[in-house]
Amino acid sequence: MAPTAVEVQHINQVIAHEPTVKVEHNIDDHVAFGGDDQWFYNPATRRFDLSRGSTRKLTLDADDGIRNHRGVQIDPAKTLLVVIDMQNFFIHPTFRDHSEGIKTVKPLVNVIDKCRTEGIQVCWLNWGITDHDLKVMPPAVTRGFNKALSHEKGHGWHVGLGAPLSKEQGGERCLFAGTWNADIYDPLKEYVTPHDVRFDKARMSGLWSPELPMHKWLRESGKKTLLFAGVNTDQCLLGTLTDAYSWGWDCILISDCAGTMTDVLGAKEVCDYNVATNMGFVTDSETFCAAERA
User: Is a pLDDT exceeding 80 seen at residue 56?
Assistant: First the structure.
């Protein structure tokens, strides 16, 4: 749904009242990007500094390929790992063979461990709809979960948002908030802590409106840099990352912690390229876990 006049007014108010961050840098050695809220690029190290003047920095290295730089520096206290749609409905073998999603679990666990060590908070962003969501949901969103139109209703790869699943799949409503199928993928549950934050969404993006709980929480928390992981790379992950980019958050995609079922079409490579060259940065779990404090 397009934003209402009230939402547009709210957006303008948020932008107008964003605090100005004062950062002291030697402009002879650094190139500034942005307006008041700036990144600084150091030609000597070929790294972007996203820390906004923080004295505690974590340096993520990168290759020179399509990224044309040697990495970024981030402030762990202002960084959030966003894990998207790692849910039973999308990953668990009870529902489908998402081999690419399952491949992300091991590197993701390593990244989560590194985040715990560095003091980077973790966010679990999942589909979790309500009856109200179904009532106001755009047709295009519901169609995405009813692609098997040639089959009898309730069968096929997509059963329909909010529709009852088969008894073999638990019999709950599809991706309904509070159900097992909408919960975090079982093997990842043990890595969730009370310090983590969890948000439900009813669109591909979890940040499409400034009125969403996650959007509000991010603004109030002061987080500036978002690390992205989860499924599907070219759908919900990219949708959320794109909105985060448009709203001004730093975006870093951890490539091997993101998977998609359309990888055979080259979707993952295209997403990596577009993020790395336009919307932010791309790294991998091994590089992230090897990151050192500056």
Answer: yes
